[in-house]
Amino acid sequence: MAIAPGPYTLKGKAAATTDTIARVATTIADGKSYSFYQSGIYNSTTKTVDAFVVEDPFVPAIDYSVAYVRFVHAISNANPLTLYARPSGDTVTAHWAAVGAEVAYKSAGPFTALSEGVYDLLTRYASTATAVTVTGVPFSAGRVYTVTARGNITITDSTDTKRPLLDNTLNR
Q: What whole-number distance in Å separates Cα of residue 54 and Cα of residue 119?
């Protein structure tokens, strides 16, 4: 959505109620794009979650022979994370390659060129084997994607809806 540059307070509301559950003050600059995230663990007493805004510095001149991928860290109770990718179905541990660098909570890494293909993705803390994974993620050349880590890092039940997950969004 296009809005005039200037200061704004962005709000998120619960779908089932009219309660404002997230609020963040930010300044929108002319000619820039942004993403608004609601994240963290819902506080049922205050009926709130955390929120943040990141700039979307899209690649100015797209190389149509590669996809561009960035990582956004939206897991409030997780240390900084790094996103890794390898060709889908590849089982060689050494083939995991970092997509950008380590990203702190409420932050986004840079858009990084990745060859077109289908990938398995994981994100984890530095020097640990504990990971959040997703398999079979397609990336098309000439497109721009955001992979977001969300959920509660302490949940290990693979069926819990609050478990840590990776979401892939096509930006353009």
A: 25
- Strand (E) or helix (H) holding 26: strand 20-28
Question: Could you read off the pLDDT of 52-98 as tens digits, one per residue?
Answer: 999 988 766 788 999 999 999 999 999 999 999 999 989 888 899 99
- 119-139 pLDDT tens trace: 999 998 776 666 788 999 999
Show Cβ contacts of residue 65 under 8 Å, excluding neighbours closer than 6 positions: 116, 141, 142
- Find the helix or strand (DSSP H, E) in which 52 lies: strand 48-55
pTM score: 0.90
Same domain, residue pair 84 and 139: yes
Residue range(s) defining the domain that contains residue 160: 59-172
**In terms of domains, do 162 and 93 share one?**
yes
Whether residues 115 and 38 share a domain: the answer is no
